[in-house]
Each structure stands twice: as C-alpha cells, then as structure tokens.
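Q: Sequence in, structure out?
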Amino acid sequence: MEDSQLLCEASRNGDIDTVCALINSGTDVSYFDSDGFTPLMHAAKLGHVAVVKALLEAGAPWNALSPSNISAGDFAMEEGHQEAFEVLLNAGIQSELILGTIARKANDNGETSGNYLEDRISFSEDKLMDSESKAVMMAWEKPLMEAHAKAVCSVGGHILNIGFGMGLVDSAIQQYNPISHTIIEAHPLVYQRMLSTGWGEKDNVRIVFGRWQDVLSQLGTYDGIFFDTYGEYYEDLREFHNHLPVLLKPGGIYSFFNGLCGGNAFFHVVYCNLVSLELENLGYSTQLIPLPVKNCLGEEVWEGVRQKYWQLDTYYLPVCQSIEDTE
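A: Exactly. Output:
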C-alpha cells in the first residue's frame, strides 16, 4: 500500500503516531483516495482531533470537497464531533482572513458576474434572471426579505436599501412607513422598471441610480440599512462594512442578504463567523437569527435556473448593531 493510502488509513483509525511519521516523510496530505476522501475528511468524520490538528498544520486543505461536495468540516458537523468541528472552523476562518480562498474560488467559477450592470436581464412573476439564466433574485426569498425589513425598520426613522432587484425588501420596508426610504440601484433596466412601476412617485422614497461605491457622497445617515447587491464579491461587502460607522446612526440596525457560500453548510458557517468577526472589529455585534427555508425550496422552484444559489435548510438572518448600543 502506498504512503498516501496509508495516511488515509491511519487518519481513519486515529493513529496519530503513524500519521505524524508519514507527514514527516513528505506524504501528500491533500491526497484523495478511491472514495474521493482526503485524510482530513477521514479524521474529521470519526472525530480524531489530534489527527485533524496534525494534518491541518501540515497543510491539508480544510476546504477540499468530496465528489458529493462535502468538506471535512461538514463531516465533523454531521457526526456531532464538536471539538474537531471547532478546530476546522477556526482553520477556515484564519485561512479566509488571510487568503480568501473560498471567495476567490467562487469568483474563478463565475458564480457572480462582473459585467452584470451591462447585462440584459429578464423579469418574470417569480424571478429576475441574467442573460446566462442565473437568478438575480427569486420570489422564494419574500419571507426572508420581510424579516430583513422588520429588522432594519425596528427603530423607525430613515431607511437605506442597496439593491432593489424585484423590490421585495423595499415593498416590505414601505409597510413600516419610514420617514424616508432611500434606494440605491445600479442596473439601468431595474432602474427603468422602478420608475415605470411608480417607485419614483412615492412621497417618502428617494431613488439613487448608480453603484453604491460611486454615490456615497450623496447619502446621509440612517436608522436602518439593508445591503443586497448582485454581481459583487465578498470584498465588496467587506468594503461596504467599512462605511457603516459613517452611514449608520447610533442605535441603528444593519442587515444584509446572507447568501455567503449558500451551497455548502460548513463554508456558510465559516463565512457567518468571518463576517461577524470583521463587523465586531468595526464595533458592531451580529445576531444570526435562524429561519427555516427548506419548505420554500422544492425542485420546481429552480426550473429554468442555471445555478442553485441556495441549497441549505436554514437561513441565518444577520441583525447588526453598534456594540455600545447593546451594552
């Protein structure tokens, strides 16, 4: 049996001495066996914490995926091995802080479109699609958008939303009769549709056409802010967060569409923790409210859609507020 396969066997058995000896001899820690599992996956699935740590320290890829798109962290999470899960979670957070490997992989795979603003989009009753049949927004999100609106409108006052899309969150925001409701929308066809459907005629609504990065100087301060753009990356969300101390009033509430790594449960947990940590460094606490969505997502929902951008049973709605206001 070759050394790589021996490493998989030793990792499965929790044989830390053999694992360390094989690592020291230069055995490939990223090897996939005939089942499509890495040594780290075997160790995580069976909760061998010492082996998990040794493999990670040797450079084993924490974000490698099996043929069924399961990572080592998913295995630890599914089997209830909490300590192994936490070791992998911390490894993922640290890696993403430094390298952003998952975000970059998503970009390389074309999961978001940098040319979205120049793209032809199409509207239907239940979805907004780009020219590649990728969903920009879908009607199944309506309950989520209503929950986001309730959160950002909870202190009343002046509300800012970045990204109109199908208008789901903005329609929900209007039900709370905010003093003012500012909407930033960058896609020209969405903007035209907003105007043709009367959004520009509402007394308390102000529409700002353009990319949020380009219109910051036109904005004021707000009691509630929601962020949900398309065709942008995690780095764009991170950049927006750096502007929160200027845009969000003391006591205000911020939320964003939490579609981060919506196709993999463990990667999603990594990014929920990552964004919470980064917001904490900016002075904001983040509460993640679990909302079950499994019943909203039958196969018929995705008919005609090229890519399922959400595949998890639970959506974690972020509610962010200044740490000073929560103490």
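The beta strands are 122-123, 127-129, 135-138, 158-162, 180-185, 205-209, 222-227, 248-256, 284-292, 314-322.
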